[in-house]
Known about the structure:
Blueprint: H1 2-34, H2 37-67, E1 80-84, H3 90-106, E2 114-118, H4 123-136, E3 140-143, H5 151-160, E4 165-168, H6 174-183, E5 187-192, H7 194-206, E6 219-226, H8 232-247, E7 251-259, H9 264-278, E8 284-287, H10 290-302, E9 312-314, H11 320-327, E10 334-336, H12 339-354, E11 362-365, E12 368-370, H13 375-382
Parallel strand pairs: 1-2, 1-3, 3-4, 4-5, 5-11, 6-7, 6-8, 8-9
Antiparallel strand pairs: 10-12
Helix pairs in contact: 1-2, 3-12, 7-8, 9-10, 11-13
The structure holds beta-D-galactopyranose.
Amino acid sequence: MKLLKKVMAVGLASTMALSMAACSGGSTETTAAETTTAKAEETTAKAEETTAKEAEEAAETTAEEVKEAAGDFDASNVKVGISIYKFDDNFMTLYRNELERYLVEDLGFKAENITIQDGKGDQAEQSNQIDNFITSGVDVLILNLVQASSAPQITDKCNEAGIPVVYINREPDVEEEDRWAAEGIKATYVGCDARQSGTFQGEEILETSNGGDINGDGKISYIMIQGDPENVDAQYRTEFSVKALTDAGKEVEELFMQRGDWDQAKGQQLTQDALTLFGDDVEVVFCNNDAMALGALQAIEAAGRTVNEDIYLVGVDALTEAVQNVLDGKMTGTVFNDHIAQAKSAADIAVQFLQGEDVAPVNMVDYTKVTTENAQEVLDALK
Length: 383
Ligand code: GAL
């Protein structure tokens, strides 16, 4: 967000510089007609000074405006309960840190009023944490469920206690989301449509010089390293990455598909197993996320294979290390799972609930394709 602010400020500064230049062009002409060129230059210099000053002021205003994102809402006494499905997850760690930062720095919540729990990958444990949050009287909950299928019971408990819930990252099913809207329950989901990320992965393979068919046998032979299959992100990425290939009229062959639970070590082991079983027949390694792709890359390198030469590798999330690999040609591509925009949206929506506003049951943020062409830009943006 700091970055976005900076980008906005720079954007504003250059827009202003342009419009000032346009204005001063006009006034300089008049001045020049009346006075000397030296005077005209002075005017331009003054204009530039003013532009810089105004841009600075604009940047300050932007920061203030962000703080005022919650309107008259006073966040200083509001208690927020957050539970993350497990802390030991690379992507959700980035998300969690950004969420906390945004709540405190941009929306004015007090750090001591925000409690973040580790669900430790155990739904029973997480449900206990949520019960404790309810008993302790939090004002709003932001929940990354261990099992999205637990949403109906958890939603009912929160609803009875009058506590609004913002679900993040693991999407409850459509039936449940429809129920919130139909029954006027203060619950919502903030996430990304995983179909889009799967499609982008498939497109990245199609965009390679041989469209994924390295050995020229007329079909794309792939292995699929899946996340947690209970999770819709894993289901959709698996389905839509391959669908992008078949929709483009390609023949595909699935050599191997196993669950790696979003985990780097599992990604490495499974890719190693697949390469031992199928050797050079493996042309494409699809990983449902970057952590597993980082593991896959270790196995690929250990097997003496070279990404983008004799094998392709794609992931999702845009972890810094993965984006660097894309830049270095060690991964074919990844997809930015925008944790910054998702954290902002989740927090802003929590505030809307607290202000008594109506909230749509589903709120989606876009993914962005990351290839060698924009990897540097994405890397800069992530820093
Ligand atoms: C996905 C993300 C994975 C993992 C998972 C947890 O969106 O790509 O890396 O964090 O969420 O539910």
